């Protein structure tokens, strides 16, 4: 009779480690993880200990950011939507002029155009690129068209050669929406420096943060002068705003840590999902609304030195953070391309995405999301909408079939820079299993 295998201390430890790793794998992958880190926390403390440094610190950040993207001028502003309104005014758009933008976008951008009397005209997107389709853009041009907004959505650059050529032919200004694509490249050049002007945003969930706030950029000296005059007339934001964002960023950093997230946030997300709610989506979302005019409170929120100081530190780290996103995104591209029922993103020729989001399509995304959360992978449908068919904008409604289909099917898969290879492996296997499960149900 064969002797039974002896169970040694090594075997027990190995089995325990495997069990612990399996337990930690369940619920350890948050939908996002902030770029805010202890390094930025130290910068906040150091900057707040000083005084009277708003102007030089902000000017340094503006100069370094402009150099980074390849424009001559950059100006810090309270938010991207306010920066967009300044660009529309500075480029000479008047009431009843038209600005073309992709249908799949954030509601606040068309809302801000309408607040200024400018009519947003929605063009369709590439179904799986999610960015402005140049042919649809050209088809929407009228004699009232004065500007176009190519939105580098989810970190994917638009086909800027085609868009710029069409815009130049028709005398249209190009305002790049780079809110989700700071550092992405198109044919080797960073987006945000490829049109007439651009706006960026630096919220806590973006790939680069300044504790809220944004940037507008251009190489047009007259436009830059106008932007600076407008911001010089604004009142600095209260320091308590930056402190509140610092506390929020610190809480997010702790909450998404792999020693904390599996046992706190993820169970709450799963429970909320079973109740038909998404607590994270609700926490970071905002009520959709129309503006009667550009909100006056932006005039009392000029960015402060502490925000610029955080921006300078983030700019030092940005290539490394984006590099991790790119590695993760390319791995997902490679591993998920043939999963039944799943459509992975595509990219325009020449685009070098930073994978701010990895957005897939599925016919039953709610069931897929639930199956993934049950396996410890959090997901979200995000905050973009098909604004061409949005109840906020009935007077500018039009038909954009790709945007409509994408809006109904899209789902964000985690791709943030804090993912480890074992996280990516677990996620890929979870997605494969979940797709099979949903497909057979």
Word description of this protein:
With 441 residues, this protein is of the alpha/beta class. The chain has one domain (28-279, 298-441): Aspartate Aminotransferase, domain 2 (3-Layer(aba) Sandwich), CATH 3.40.640. The chain is 44% helix and 12% strand. It has 15 helices and 14 strands. The chain has helices at 9-25, 38-48, 54-69, 80-90, 108-115, 134-139, 160-170, 221-232, 239-255, 265-274, 279-284, 305-336, 365-374, 401-409, 421-440, and strands at 73-77, 98-102, 104-105, 119-123, 145-148, 173-177, 185-186, 189-190, 197-201, 214-218, 351-352, 358-361, 385-386, 410-413. The strands form 4 sheets. Strands 1-10-9-6-5-2-4 form a 7-stranded mixed beta sheet, sandwiched between helices. Strands 8-7-11 form a 3-stranded antiparallel beta sheet, with no helix packed on it. Helix 2 (38-48) runs antiparallel to helix 12, helix 3 runs parallel beside helix 12 (305-336) and helix 12 crosses helix 15 (421-440). The longest helix has 32 residues, at 305-336. The chain is globular. The chain starts with 8 loop residues before the first helix and ends with a helix.
User: Major sheet, described briefly?
Assistant: 7 strands, mixed
Which of globular, elongated, flat, extended, rod-shaped describes the shape? Answer: globular
Q: Give the total of domains.
A: 1
Q: Which CATH architecture would you pick? A: 3-Layer(aba) Sandwich
Name the CATH superfamily classification.
Type I PLP-dependent aspartate aminotransferase-like (Major domain)
What is the total tally of β strands?
14
The strands making up the biggest β-sheet line up spatially as 1-10-9-6-5-2-4
Q: How far apart lie the N and C ends?
A: 47 Å
Helical content band:
40-55%
What would you call the structural class? alpha/beta
CATH secondary-structure class: Alpha Beta
Radius of gyration: 23 Å
Q: Strand-residue fraction? A: 5-15%
Helix segment tally = 15
Determine the CATH topology. Aspartate Aminotransferase, domain 2
């Amino acid at each position: 009779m064969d002797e039974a295998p002896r169970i040694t201390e090594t075997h027990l430890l190995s089995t325990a480690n495997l069990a612990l790793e399996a337990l930690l794998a369940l619920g350890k992958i948050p939908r996002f993880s902030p770029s805010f880190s202890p390094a930025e926390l130290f910068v906040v403390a150091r900057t707040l200990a000083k005084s009277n440094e708003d102007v030089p610190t902000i000017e340094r950040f503006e100069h370094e950011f402009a150099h980074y993207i390849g424009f001559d001028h950059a100006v810090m502003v309270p938010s991207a939507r306010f920066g967009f309104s300044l660009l529309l005014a500075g480029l000479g758009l008047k009431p009843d002029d038209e600005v073309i933008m992709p249908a799949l976008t954030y509601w606040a951008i068309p809302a801000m155009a309408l607040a200024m009397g400018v009519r947003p005209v929605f063009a369709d997107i590439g179904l799986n690129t999610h960015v402005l389709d140049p042919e649809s853009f050209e088809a929407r041009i009228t004699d009232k068209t004065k500007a176009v907004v190519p939105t580098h959505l989810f970190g994917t650059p638009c086909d800027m050669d085609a868009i710029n050529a069409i815009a130049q032919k028709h005398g249209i200004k190009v305002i790049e929406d780079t809110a989700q694509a700071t550092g992405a490249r198109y044919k080797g050049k960073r987006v945000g420096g490829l049109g007439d002007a651009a706006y960026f945003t630096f919220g806590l969930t973006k790939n680069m943060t300044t504790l809220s706030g944004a940037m507008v950029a251009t190489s047009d000296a007259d436009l830059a002068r106008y932007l600076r005059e407008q911001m010089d007339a604004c009142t600095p934001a209260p320091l308590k705003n930056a402190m509140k964002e610092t506390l929020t960023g610190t809480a997010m950093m702790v909450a998404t840590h792999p020693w904390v997230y599996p046992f706190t946030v993820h169970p709450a997300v799963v429970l909320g999902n079973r109740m038909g709610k998404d607590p994270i989506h609700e926490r970071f979302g905002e009520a959709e609304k129309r503006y009667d005019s550009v909100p006056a409170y932006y005039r009392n929120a000029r960015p402060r030195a502490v925000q610029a100081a955080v921006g300078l530190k983030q700019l030092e780290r940005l290539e490394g953070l984006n590099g991790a996103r790119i590695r993760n995104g390319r791995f997902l591209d490679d591993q998920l391309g043939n999963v039944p029922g799943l459509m992975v993103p595509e990219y325009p020729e020449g685009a070098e995405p930073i994978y701010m989001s990895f957005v897939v399509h599925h016919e039953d995304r709610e069931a897929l999301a639930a199956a993934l959360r049950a396996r410890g992978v959090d997901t979200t449908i995000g905050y973009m909408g098909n604004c061409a068919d949005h109840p906020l904008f009935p007077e500018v409604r039009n038909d954009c079939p790709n945007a409509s289909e994408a809006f109904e099917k899209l789902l964000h898969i985690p791709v943030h820079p804090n993912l480890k290879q074992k996280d990516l492996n677990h996620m890929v296997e979870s997605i494969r299993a979940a797709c099979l499960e949903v497909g057979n149900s």
